[in-house]
Design a protein that fits this description.
Distance between the termini: 15 Å
Number of strands: 8
Largest sheet: 5 strands, parallel
Shape: globular
């Protein structure tokens, strides 16, 4: 069970698509409406406004429903899937790292992040192109990277060609599997 995360625009959904195309079981978690939602700080699910301002974004978080995450994992195990790649990000993902054999951090610089978020018309979501979301995402860049490094996520250079990124992930996963305590 491998988790791939990164800042907005790092390529998490693209990685999930490419790994799937290569025959791996990979899920872009941000696309699961039962798993992901915006929530107020008290945990109540809410609908994000079309143009969220900085105050709204500061008082709400993109989170995963833990029960749904466990369902996704259990379904893969029930299907006999040996290796599951879960790709995404959420404010509460750091609290759930114990569910994964290894975590990988897709790393890009802030200029690339800005470019991918604003120019990437093919992106799966509009975060970075609406309201204050780009400014808030860029402001949280360093904290996100530091947090995931502190949690032990293995860094992967996501500024490379997508095939190289996925190859690097597969090699890092194989290394992590070999070094996993039995």
């Amino acid at each position: 069970m491998f988790f791939v995360t990164g800042v907005s625009g790092a390529g998490k959904s693209t990685v999930a698509c490419r790994l799937s195309a290569w025959g791996h079981r990979a899920v872009s978690l941000d696309g699961d409406g039962r798993l992901c939602s915006w929530a107020a700080l008290d945990g109540r699910r809410v609908v994000r406004p079309a143009e969220p301002d900085a105050a709204w974004l500061a008082s709400h978080r993109w989170v995963w429903d833990v029960t749904r995450l466990d369902e996704i994992i259990a379904a893969a195990c029930g299907d006999g899937v040996e290796t599951l790649w879960l790709c995404g990000q959420a404010a509460n993902a750091g609290e759930l790292v114990d569910r994964f054999d290894a975590c990988f951090l897709l790393e890009i610089d802030q200029a690339t992040m800005r470019h991918r978020m604003t120019v990437g018309a093919g992106r799966g979501n509009d975060f970075g192109r609406v309201g204050a979301s780009l400014d808030v995402a860029l402001a949280g860049y360093r904290e996100f990277i530091v947090t995931w490094r502190r949690l032990g996520a293995v860094p992967v250079d996501a500024m490379q060609d997508i095939d190289q990124v996925c190859e690097d992930l597969l090699v890092a996963a194989a290394f992590a599997a070999l070094n996993r305590p039995s």
